[in-house]
Amino acid sequence: MESICSKSKSHFKKLCMVTLLKKVEIFQQMDGQVLKAISKRLKPMNFNAKQYILKEKKPLNMMFFVVRGAVLIKSVSAMDANVKKTCELGSFYGEELVHWVTTWVSHQTFPTKLPLSPDSALCPYHGGSVEILALKSDDLKSVLSDFTLPTDSDQPLDWLTTLKNVERLETMGVEVLKKICGYLELRTYEDAYIIQKDKPIEMMFFIMSGVVSVTDGSSKHYYRNEGGCPNHSGDDLIEHWLKSKSTSVPAKLPTSPFSFWAIGEVEVLVLKSDDLAKVQPGDQIR
């Protein structure tokens, strides 16, 4: 009887762990067997008041779920540095790590360095100890490497085709697109802003490799190269370009409603506003 009860408790615990994982959007898209394997790697950890769980700008070596107490999330360098958040029972922090791992898991080797934590996570000065369930980076890599098959995301991309992923450029004449291609350049960002919220959009970019977090201050999403179809940002720059070419007075650059942050190392294909301004749309827009 005791053995049956023990098995029942173990099964219930696994179900609870999987339910906890499903609070994270990216885990909701994963197969049940993968989630069960990940749930077995969750490790309980305890921290006392004033102890850091993660430090800002230090390697993001885990994501975690709060199972007792509350965790303070704060940042010195972020744009909302004065805003402090709290992770309470059932909340999680560090999902950037999961997006980063799933982006690189189909490659032969992971980047040598982990992405950096964008914030600090610590136990408040008052409020007692905190218990978390931690998912370490090495454990996550190990599980996903066992279950994930290689994709074609490393196939070389034709830059002309890449430009046509932008709706306003899709029907533009080939000669104009070729001229724009001549100004495209590859850049690498590492744990840094690519574009900041409320700042002028001085370029548009296409993600060649890596993952980018996108936030408006209240919600967060993640962009990556989706199977050879690069996510992009800065479409408003195209509208600005077309408008400035059709009027005698150049329009002011639009401002970005989002911040784009490179998680770890990210390679992007960049088109700067100054270079785009040198191209004439002409009469080739069909």
From TrEMBL:
<dbReference type="InterPro" id="IPR018490">
    <property type="entry name" value="cNMP-bd_dom_sf"/>
</dbReference>
<protein>
    <submittedName>
        <fullName>Uncharacterized protein LOC103332507</fullName>
    </submittedName>
</protein>
<keyword id="KW-1071">Ligand-gated ion channel</keyword>
<keyword id="KW-0813">Transport</keyword>
<dbReference type="InterPro" id="IPR000595">
    <property type="entry name" value="cNMP-bd_dom"/>
</dbReference>
<keyword id="KW-0406">Ion transport</keyword>
<dbReference type="InterPro" id="IPR014710">
    <property type="entry name" value="RmlC-like_jellyroll"/>
</dbReference>
<feature type="domain" description="Cyclic nucleotide-binding">
    <location>
        <begin position="26"/>
        <end position="95"/>
    </location>
</feature>
<keyword id="KW-0407">Ion channel</keyword>
